[in-house]
Amino acid sequence: MKYSPFIFNEEALSKFQILKKAFTTAPILSHLNPSLPAIVETDASDYALGAVLSQVNDSDKLPIAYDSFKLLPAELNCEIHDKELLGIAWALKRWRAFLLSLSNSFEVLTDQSSL
Predict the structure, then answer these.
(1) Residue 86 in contact with residue 78, Cβ under 8 Å?
(2) Structural domain tally of the chain?
(3) Would 17 be classed as within a structural domain?
(4) Model confidence over 46-95: pLDDT tens digits?
(5) Domain Reverse transcriptase/retrotransposon-derived protein RNase H-like: where (predicted)?
(6) Strand 106-110 to strand 38-44: parallel, antiparallel, or no bridges (unpaired)?
């Protein structure tokens, strides 16, 4: 494998500072607005599930809640599409009260193409 030279110029320094600030600044969670539609985004890995509940207000995506769950030993043997579906079911159950309080619909997003 051929390696490229590492170039750290002014542009790279600027991008690095932006990235560093993003990693050291916690996003502020918003309160749920029942009049706005919600988005539930889920993802599954070999060992865990993760989800984000958010809403869009004036083109800004506002995070409402984050959560993750370590899979149980029996769940580790599931195929990835089953884990993705498990993640959706888990997130909907986790945020059921929030989602039922909405006056609008909500959208579920996952990166699993078979779902």
Answers:
(1) yes
(2) 1
(3) no
(4) 999 999 999 998 888 899 999 999 999 999 999 999 999 999 999 999 99
(5) 9-106
(6) parallel
Residue 115: what pLDDT? 64
List the structure tokens of 35: 């009049």
Write the secondary structure of 23-86 as one string of H (helix), E (strand) and C (coil): HHCCCCCCCCCCCCCEEEEEEECCCEEEEEEEEEECCEEEEEEEEEEECCCCHHHCCHHHHHHH
The residue among 53, 18, 17, 4 whose CA lies nearest residue 32 is 53
The DSSP output letter for 107 is E
Residue 76's domain spans which residues?
Answer: 29-110
Q: Is residue 15 part of a domain?
A: no
Distance separating alpha carbons of residues 36 and 54, to the nearest angstrom: 10
Which pair of structure tokens corresponds to residue 45? 């890995």
Q: Are 106 and 37 in contact (CB under 8 A)?
A: yes
The one-letter code for the residue type at 49 is L
- The pTM assigned to this predicted structure is 0.75
Give the alpha-carbon dihedral of 67, 73, 75, 76, to 10 degrees: 90
